[in-house]
Amino acid sequence: MRKIKVLAICAIAVLAVSNIKAQGFSTGADIVSSYVWRGVPQDGTSLGGTPNIQPYASFTTGKLTLGSWASGSFTGAVKEVDLYATLAVSSKFAITVTDYYYNFAGQPNYFKYSGGTGHVFEGTLAYTGSAFSASINTMFAGADKKVNGDNALSTYVELGYQIAPVAKIFLGGSLGESQTYGTTGFGITNLGIKVSKSIAITDKFSLPVYAIVGANPYAKSTFFVAGVTL
User: Fold this and answer.
1) Which CATH number is 206's domain given?
2) Long-range contacts of range 79-88, CB-CB < 8 Å, 24 or more positions apart?
């Protein structure tokens, strides 16, 4: 009888976990030809030129999503692990708080949150419509500093427009002085187009791929990123 009870409890637990996974968990990974974020290369040794694998995982319950996103260079030069929480205020508006962590920022200790920390904390307000999207993102604490050591409060704004089912144009920039974005004042750092396509591998499986052609007008640079979503 005791064995039957144990088996029954295990079966209920498995079903419960399976039900939770079916309802809220999501995971995957992108493989990109280089890591460029908001128009700024993120590999300090190769200026973003090395391939990166970028895994992600999230759990959604109701209007709240908790997740993690990371990026690691194939050469081992970059390691980033981010945590975030997103609250869907409505079908179009969402608020996100993100904890970015870069272990190449001079602080390899993940659990150091003050002084020379490798963490940056950011708040985001995002709007996503049927074609138009917009977001404002402000770093409010952590390693985002001015040259004099004061909090930079780096703020990045981005606008996007879906010009076709598979193509989106975007325009983004820093609103002020920011070492994070390499600006001494207002500057457009991210301008370009993203084109997506699904390549049929079998009758039941397709591989999503995308390409981003962009420029950082402030830095007078360009970039081309190709990606595969697994």
Assistant:
1) 2.40.160
2) 79/103, 79/104, 80/42, 81/110, 87/63, 88/63, 88/64
